[in-house]
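Sequence in, structure out. First:
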Amino acid sequence: MSKDAVFEVVGKPQQDRAERVKELSGLGFSWADLDDDPYWIDQAVAMRGDVYAELEQASAKLWRIFDRAARFVIGRHDLYAMIGIPELLWATLDMLEPGAEGLLSRYARFDFAISAEGDIKLLELNADTPTGYVEAAVVTPWQCGQYGLHSPNEAMMEHVAAAWGEERPDTAACVSYGTHLEDSGTIEMLARHSGLPVTCTDCLELWVDEGVLKDGDDRIIRRMFALYPKEWMAIDDGGDALAYAMESGNLELFNPIHAIILQSKGLQALIWGLYELELLFDAEERAVIGRYMLPTYNKAVFDGSFVSKSMFGREGGSVIIYNDEGKQVEKDEAGFDTSRFFPLVYQQRAELAKITLEAGEFHLLTGMFVINGVPCGLLGRAGGLITGNASHFVAIGVRK
């Protein structure tokens, strides 16, 4: 492949996969194989240096734009409703003070479509509970080192330590802790990289006693990092009690509650609408929106191909692709469809570059972690037209 190519696949899968999977498990990545299927690809992808530089700059600028838009929303119930925020959380959002500029969320990930020509388009922002941290912070530098690629991900640990040093959670929680390998491994690695004495626990064992959150051993929790989507508080039993614990000042949750505004894909529709109306954003911000964001609306108003997805869909769940005639051509069947609970957005379709791995031809989704307000980590996912739960993890490094 030409060195001028935006992406270049490097390396060949080694024959001793079982030994390499064992080595990765020792590093804290114990889900390289899931249900006897290879999730981790034993190859790497080299990104052209100038494309990475543009991606990093675009991420920083978009992060500030999303922050400004989210602050525009805070306190406006009409906009909460427009972007699908569950009404249960409105009072909490109004009552609690948002974080400092650029820090409504300290742990987030942009997902980009980068074409074979290097065009960068933002698909969505997971500003609440992104997974893929171990893959990006641990496995990617390990693999890039083997192929002579530069990995900007090496700084991720430092940014986590800085973020958690400010937040100082005493507890990290996920659903099915100890049995769900990915989520359990993610919070354990974050806790390890924080350098703090953090207790990991299962969300399903938590309960609220007169506004005080406790774990299964009746230990009081005051400051908690939760790999638990905040929108589910409106659906799960006990969600109102958890909201009350925050409102009463007995619990600080991380990411903070205002991260749900950034998380909603409805915010992208709001940003695009403000851009078209020439409101809120200055000329520089408008240039960034026009270049890197995709037209996104609350209704399907496109002449060409587009996608629909739930405002709070995750891992590809609820995504449907439509062709130029508006007919469905692809639907994600692997992820959980949340459109029964939350409204949809409609977004112009963007093309992802194709890569050829030993396992076949795939579309490449490029993630960029933003930790403590700093773009700092690439995450590669190789899959079909819709990158969902069935996709593979492939390390992305930068060509030196």
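Second:
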Amino acid sequence: MTETRSIAQTPAQAAVFLETLAAIVEKSPVAYSTDSAGDLAAHIRGMAEAVTTEAHVKPAELDTTRQYAALDWHNEAIAVLFAAEHRPTFH
């Protein structure tokens, strides 16, 4: 079965995806030191802010997208936890 996936279809979805990615990077510094993970997370959050600003995303649209994404990405974060090396770093 062939499946086509799209990460982001709107600027709000792209911004929320980046915010979620930053949170995962920050909470799971397996490949980086804690400081490096924080720096990378900050950089990714800056990208999310740039998308939001340049695309003139309305705050209400962003909030609604965050609410829906919290449900979807919660499942993704849980999947990350199944990797043994990530478990000790999540609190």
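Remark: The chain has a mean pLDDT of 79.
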